[in-house]
Amino acid sequence: MNKEIVNVNNLLKKFGDFVAVDNINFSVKKGEIFAFLGPNGAGKSTTIKIMTTLSKANGGSVEINGFDVLKDKKKVRESIGVIFQDPTLDEDLTAYENLYYHSILYGISKAKRKKKIEDLLNYVGLLDRKNDFVKNFSGGMKRRVEIARGLLHDPKLLFLDEPTLGLDVQTRTFLWNHIKKVNKEKKITVFFTSHNLDEAEKIATKVAIIDHGRILIIGTSEEIKKKTKTKSLEKAFLKLTGYDIRVDKADGVDRMRRFRR
Amino acid sequence: MDSALYVMWHRQIKEYFRNKQRLIVSLVQPLLFLIAFGFGLGNSFQSSGNFNYIQYLLPGIVGMTIMMSSTMGGMSLIWDKKFGFLKETLVAPVSRINLLFGRCLGNATTSVFQGLIVLFLGYFMGFRIFNWSMFPLIILCMFFIALLFNLLGTSLAAKFDDMQSFPSIMNFLMMPMMFLSGAFFSTNNFPKVLQFIVKINPFDYCVSLLRFVISGIETNLLLDFMVVGILILLLGFLGTRLFNRMEV
Fold first, then answer.
1. Is the pLDDT of residue A250 over 60?
2. Which chain B residue shows the shortest CA-CA distance from A97?
3. A105 vs B contacts (CB less than 8 Å)
4. What DSSP designation does A94 have?
5. Mean of the per-residue pLDDT values for chain B?
6. pLDDT digits over A122-144, tens only?
């Protein structure tokens, strides 16, 4: 049970002279709900990109489910489900079609496809909307489709990059309960980032706080609060990372995406 | 069939036929060229001799239609980059080369469809396919040309990602290729410098290839095929390289 599903060793990523991820080390045990927290520009998304094989590191190694992200890309990709910060659905397709193409890409057999897709759409409460175009969905519904899609191929590890950003309280509650359920019932390890520290504190079984490309602390919420002598994870977070407001670079694409959301 | 190849091919075709507006708009431009050149230039050609201009012109318009729709096929990659779907495919356990080729083959299929529509419209203007037994070869040639320009458009789209500037860059590339070729008129009377440009213009070889299979007008078939084939290989390599390096 206590085996590690993620192993990150001396991971280094540079963009020119800027060191985005500075020799970090951490591991995630099977069955954990792992919160990866940090201010904007701390290196969270960069780390996730490397862990999900979308970006190459400049040094160190990452093992996911026992496979190296550089040498065994395919095995790593089969082991993970990813819900990115920005929506990645094809809006000109229906919910069902989005999941259908996904099932082919992940090699789910023809016989199982339809049932699996419908089961999962039902699981996120969208079965009656399966033939509607995604472009007509609200932000929360899109997220639910993405969660269904991310679970379709039975991943061992689910990545969620700020899954509740911009969603209303109802949808957020629904999502977190769902993530807990997935973790418990399907035995899927969860790795997520969030800026909502209260939510993270409630749901995470393990927390890592990263800033300026370095991991500042790692442990359960209780341990972190004890170590920093604070009453909440948010207070601990602010004590560790300071009160300065970070400048996050946003290019045209980012602005457009936000607009679209 | 490889899953990525199939998914991308299927999706590109599905979305093309689903978008009725785009489908109609994509046919207006070739129709306009057909009318303007066919009736306009055609009449002045006809009065000067017994040369059948529409037989000459139509393969050029078909080529233009295929080149334009194919190069613009790169736009869908930029669209997918911006709106995220590209990430979903890149994180899937499939190879990028198949994602690239599936996309290009799907777009190429829709381009061939557009080319066939133009061919059909030509019949109303007196055009006739010179030999129906060549029909499979016509489709094949259209397909190769469509693949060539899809690889060009998609490779460039892997490199650039500005939604606004991409169409202008593509037009900047395509306009000279179109007009400095034998697509609409013979280039035999061009000045020496321009004739040289025609010689190094890949689109000119595509047009003469189409002109042979569609209208039976003689050409250096081997050379045309070689130019198209070599360019597909080169752009295939380039596209794969750029696709592999793409970070999202």
1. no
2. B11
3. 3-4, 7, 89, 92-94
4. B
5. 91
6. 999 999 999 999 999 999 999 99
Which residue type, as a one-letter code, is found at position B127? F
**d(Cα A126, Cα A118) in Å, to the nearest integer?**
9
Average pLDDT over residues A185-194: 94
Residue type, A36: F
The CA-atom distances, in angstroms, between B200 and each of A95, A183, B121, B194, B203 are 47, 61, 31, 10, 9
* Topology, domain A4-260: Rossmann fold (3.40.50)
Amino acid, res. B201: N
**A49 and B247: CB-CB below 8 Å?**
yes
Segments in A85-138 forming alpha helices (H): 95-105, 110-123
Nearest to B3 among A52, A75, A104 (CB): A104
Six-digit token string for A84: 């990115």
Q: Would the pTM of this model clear 0.80, i.e. be above it?
A: yes
DSSP state of B40: I
Asked if pLDDT for residue B25 goes beyond 90, the answer is no
- Total domains in chain B come to 1
Mapped to the 3 state alphabet, what secondary structure does B186-203 carry?
CCCCCCHHHHHHHHCCHH
The CA distance from A177 to the nearest CA of chain B, in Å, is 24
Length of chain A (residues): 261
pLDDT at A247: 67
CB-based burial, B126-159: b 16+ in 10 Å, e otherwise: ebebeeeebeeebeebbbbbbbbbbbbbbbbbbe
Give the pLDDT confidence score for residue B105 in this predicted structure: 97
Which helix or strand (DSSP H or E) is residue A215 part of? strand A214-219
Residue A77 contacts B where some CB pair is shorter than 8 Å = yes
B191 is in which domain, residue-wise? 3-245
Q: List the structure tokens of A72.
A: 């065994």
- Taking residues A75-103, report their average pLDDT: 95
Provide the 10 A C-beta neighbour count for residue B194.
12
Domains of chain A by residue range:
4-260
Contact B224, B138 (CB under 8 A): no
Tell me if chain B has a CB within 8 Å of the CB of A150.
no
pLDDT at A261 over 80: no
Kindly report the nearest CA distance between residue A244 and chain B, in angstroms: 28
